[in-house]
Design goal:
heterodimer; A: alpha/beta; Rossmann fold; six-stranded mixed sheet; about 35% helix; about 25% strand; B: mainly alpha; ABC transporter involved in vitamin B12 uptake, BtuC; two-stranded antiparallel ribbon; 14 helices; 2 strands
Chain lengths: ~500, ~325
Amino acid sequence: MAEPARAGDVAVEMAGIAKSFGDVHALDDVTFRVAPGEVHGLLGENGAGKTTLMNVLTGLYLADRGDVALHGQHVDLRTPSDAVGHGVGMVHQHFELVQAFSALENILLGAVTATWSMDTASHRERIADLADHYGFTVDLDTRVADMEVGDQQKVEILRILYAGADILVLDEPTTHLTPAEVDHLFASVRELAAEGLAVVLIAHKLHEVFAVCDRVTVLRHGRLAGSLDVAAAAHADVVAMMMGDDATMVEARAKTCDIGEDEVLSLRGVTATGGAVDVHLHDLDLQVHRGEFVGIAGVAGNGQRELMELLAGLRPITTGRMHASGVDVTHARVDERIRAGVAVLPGDRMREGVLPASPLYETYALGRHLLHDHFSPHDLQDQARDMIARFDVRTSGPTAPTASLSGGNIQKVLVARALDVSEHAGGGAMVVMNPTSGLDVGAAAFVHDQLVRTCEAGGGVLLISEDLDELLALCDRVVVLSHGRLAGQQVAGDYDRLVLGDLMVAAHG
Amino acid sequence: MDFLLDLVDADMLRTTLVVATPLLLAALGELLLERVGLLNLAIEGMVGVGAAMGFCVVFVAGRTVPTVLLAIAAAALSAILIGVVFGWLTLHLQANQITVGLALLILGLGASSLLYRGVVGVTTTPPSIGTLPLWRIPGLSEIPYLGRVLFQHDLFVYVGLSTLLPVWWVLHRTPLGLRLRAVGESPKAVDALGLPLARLRWSALVAGCALIGIAGSFFPLSLVGGYSDDIASGRGWLALMLVIFGRWRPWTIAAGALLFAYVEALQFQFGVTSKAIPPQFLRMLPYVLAIIVLVRVYGRAQAPAALTKPYDRESRF
């Protein structure tokens, strides 16, 4: 198990780490140090590079530049098993457990190196001791598939500890936990640190960092924004680091149209409390007018996804009314909303936006096919060829498998598809979620330009984004979503990042 | 009352064990494959090739102890050969397991027929190689009733039925088995742990195919003493079904094999003693049972999660 912390020892030392995916600089000259016995928070918005940095540490990604040293020794981490061999273990957001196995079997799978024999009884005893010691008590004989998410997480952590890790990385571990489970987890994490383990906590929520961490490092757009001792820092310091003080990251073309009177999208008193979701939506009052660009800001997990699904028609509205361009679509199906001009650009484009193995022209036709009475594959291919030329999509042609395109080019296709839906309604509502996450600067600028154009063409845009720079650069007003409620708004010209940041985190905890 | 006594007749229970042997062997072989995520629809073809190979070796070389062992080994190897093609296409080239399995099924059935005709030629009366001699276990075989049921078989039956133990032990009592089962559930998790995914899959594939081929050689060597193209008559398919019936667990698979063998033995028994039930109906019984079992069990059964799914580490979707 973990060795006791030595004075001056550094468990993790990452220096000058750089990593690019194509044209996207995911990490640029990032330095990161964790001492043994320390809980170190890693903060930043989606796409800031937190997970990428940890994937370098756990051997999933090979850094383009930079050095990694563990306990003062240079290491070459080329595969996950290299990292495991050096005592680095990561708990991913989606646990890599075998669902059909019991907790015990999952833990043994990673820990037993023999082929023919294992002393299950003594392993079981030692695992149970470890679990008791750190408060990760679970029934070792229950199938993982039958466990609550919180217990699955305990199994995953136990597995990593039992395999001998002394550097533990937790990737947003609180996402699916109840407040009581979060408290419990944090107590266990403190216990681990007290025994000399180095714990890295990838976090989204500020109050969690202040609740459990000794130090915090903030990443912004793949760069190091700063590193602080939590005890000596104020919330405002960290918020300032996260928000940045420059608006230069996103350059948007100014809109050349005025905001009209007509509403292209409106929610009045909308509540959605159905289904097993993390966040229920309450009392939403939100209007998007013709030519208006409205942003929804908030910390991830505050109802953005639910709002997106509600607008698209995937989540029923419990009370309240929703209108699209004057038509009541409160209880309308997805296809009826598309005909009413509600165009959606989903947040998870690979999973919700495309048919990965199907030809590009079929992905492009999805949803648009509702707008015409009949079409032929030949027509669709012609339309796709035309779209490819207009938007400069890099692909071998309309029949290329959709997944063969890069993220940026896929997003171009999805933007083109949403534009068609919006234009067909004579300027409908475009609902967009994190449209530039993972895109390079050029592709992001293209997407922004098309959104501005949509407003100018008489439509309205609702941009749900975790990137405050993007929201402030583009939007006429920004509304903050917190705990499934609209917490307040600011209008272009009066933007104050700190006030928005406070609105975003205020109701937390 | 006579009717009830017939149901536990010692000869019939003895036949049950004989009939269960190839079913169990083939089903355990298929179990090994499915536990690492491979659905082997070529099983009936592999059984056929094993049968033809087993027959031909003894037919050519004569029936002595070494040639019988050679025949069994050759049967295992011929099934492994088909398995290697299956593995190369589905694991290496990521081809669809159903398509490849069905293609190799037809290849296997054709190859066994061709092999027999190539070696034996076309004859009016099919040649016989005789079946293995019974080995009455001294002492035990003298026990009334039980001795007759359990201890008057040929070696093939004893060894074949005891294969259950090592297969169960490896799969459920060793770290190797833990890894093999994990491969069938989540290749990604196994890969992420740095375990040798390909080697695990190939070793289960080779061992499983060997068992299936040996199951095929049982028919000419132990049961029939001759060969015909329909010698396996769907027992490969039954074995495939038994894996589902047994919910991918060795002991329940063995119980299923005994149940089906019992139904089959029952039909021999009633075929002899009763003229009331048409023989066609009796021959149908095991398959009717198979359909009922599949309808009742399959909906709730837990197949290995990654069964038939190709694994590509760099897959984007």
